[in-house]
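Batch job 17 of 40 flagged for manual review because the log was empty.
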Amino acid sequence: MEFIEGETLAERLSKGALPLEDVLEYGLQIADGLDTAHRAGIVHRDLKPGNAMLTKSGIKLLDFGLAKLLAEGTVSPSSDAETRQRDLTKEQTILGTLQYMAPEQLEGSSADGRSDIWAFGAMLYEMLTGKKAFDGDSQASLIGAILKDDPAPLAELQPMSPPLIEQVVEKCLEKKPDQRWQRMSDVAIPLRWAAEHRFENSAAVAPVKRASRLALAGAGLACALLGAMALSYFRPAIAPVSLDSKRFVLPFPEGQMLETIRYSSVTISPDGNHIAYVARDSSESRLYLRDLETFEAVSVPESEGALSPFFSHDGQWLGFFAHGRLQKVSIAGGRPSTVAEIGMNPRAGGGASWGPDDTIVFGGDDGL
């Protein structure tokens, strides 16, 4: 066997959770390695911290002993069929290490690349928190937890972890393979984005938390609060509802994803009763308004391509940018109207603020 100098990720985790910088670095290296294997038609099936070695040159994935070909060719009776590994998962045999096994593996179904994505999500969770995503007093209770339970929210165990990473982990650990990330390359995209922006975001997280102490989870809503609250030029005309030490989850409808790449995508009304956000479905992005007393968000008509939503000082109007125009729409309903032709989009992440004298300030390429 090859001699590899270093320590396993499991040995490193025995000392506790990893710094976010290391989580992103190691996570990206593991994701890229798995993506390479999957593109070659190989699924690992036993991915775990003990099979990831930390070396001077980076992460090295080990022990593909349970690996299988994703797409095997037809084997004729006269070939080497008797020497090939059987697909034991099709024979209802559990292969792998329980705490990192996907539900379909525990149920004896055939494993594919999405099973590795589950294990990768469990490893990310452990790197961030220092705790295993699933645990039990016995094999039976552990299997039951994996099949039926959700792990403790990351925001409870590691409050300073970026909500975007929480979204990545939650989607990796979906019980049904069709609801997970479908390719490792898809998982790597938000991880790489978070790694590239971690320094500029880290400076904004602390003041935002001090100002609102509101943590939003589910589909990365809190991530976009940074941009929405960055420009706090005006104070709201009414006192905000006390949300101290509160946390709530707003799940997205099937197939809907928060637009988080360039612009602030989420805003909360001054009275705390409404949330507006920009999300993308299978076709394009649009603006949604959610009354927190209801169970569903309502799509704002004619809001395709909306950017950087923001509420008026009294919370009765919702402003946004689209196609070079500054627009507004009443939260009571109706169609948007144009406030001004600005011939440009707001500066990325700059957001906007609507003051009590009905002055709107927003960031552009040349400043405010």
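Reviewer: the log was empty due to a logging misconfiguration, but the result itself is present. Residues 213-362 form one domain. Unflagging and moving on to job 18.
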